Amino acid sequence: MKKGALLESLETVLVVTVITLLIWLYAEGETIQTDSRPISIRFVAPTTGLAITVPGQEPGTTTISVTAILQASRGDWPRITEWVRNKTVEIEVKAPAPDSHDEQQTINLLDALNRSPLTREARAFVKEVTPQSMTVRVQTLETIEMGLRVDPGELELSNEANEEPTFSPDKVQVQLPTEDARLVRGQNLKLIARLDKIGPDTLGENTQNVVAVDLSLPPELENKPHIELARHSVDVTFVVDKLTKQIVLDRVQVRLTISDEITGQYDIQIDPDTQRIIPVTLKGPEEAINYITNHIKEQPDLVRASIIIKLADLQGDPPYSAPLYIDVPQGVTVVSPDPTQTLITYTVTKLNPQP
Questions:
Q1: Which residues pair with 315 in a beta bridge?
Q2: Angle at CA of residue 209, ends 206 and 211, nearest 5°
Q3: pLDDT tens for residues 239-285?
Q4: CATH numbers and ranges of domains, the chain
Q5: CB neighbours of 18 closer than 8 A, spacing ≥ 6?
């Protein structure tokens, strides 16, 4: 064979081989492959003034993860993997019809994903998705003005007509779902200025106090989603008639009081496992609390803890227990321990009759 013919034959073989390889690579790339991937989905509103609630998610959270079975050419999978790792598919909900009370919308996730950029950009076909559909709540929002009221907490405010609390501003704009707005208007609900959060030591009696006070929603709106206040505090002007104060007495002795009918008949002892010295927390007018603080050492009976035992209390079987009583000055209340829920245990021994 001549040299030119041999070279021509080699070139032909090389071209055929290259073409065959390219055809094989193309066919390999076009081979359909099926695999599962997590897909991030975010529900979005078509316009402002709408709030979306997704089942099982915190209010305001509209992004979920679903599992999709995708089909694509083998050569597209690297791009698909990168796409689903870094991007979130936005699915638009519909705005509720005017005057419609139906806030539920069922979204077909399979159809929505196949119409999304996941198909157009990543060239993936969604064969299955779990869940296949989801029902979301779409509410219309509106902005209203709400009035204010105070929660005085332990403060005793003046009841004089010209000394009622005033607010600056006296109304606050609130954005909330239409359903809740109807509730506010129907029941004339007001935001609460929390005077109970103010340290009483910073206030004066029988004089005007002007304090920036935090606002809270009324109980009827607590824990409801999609409610936003334009501001979270207001200046409140108020007059305190009496200030309250709190004190903790670390050592109050529990005393035992027995009725005359069992005196000399039984020996009664408070159980050693029961604390005979208990801490007591009191609250009341500042003047009364200050008096207790300054005189409790020389007048321990100002605060007296005791249990009272009568013959009828000894008729049952041991163990024995009696409710705790705590006596305090007039106007002062016990914060803890709760006497109605505190039992003191004791032991009873019958004494031998005297000859």
A1: none
A2: 155
A3: 877 767 788 988 888 888 888 777 877 788 887 766 678 888 988 87
A4: 32-139 (2.170.120.40), 147-242 (2.170.120), 245-350 (2.170.120.30)
A5: none
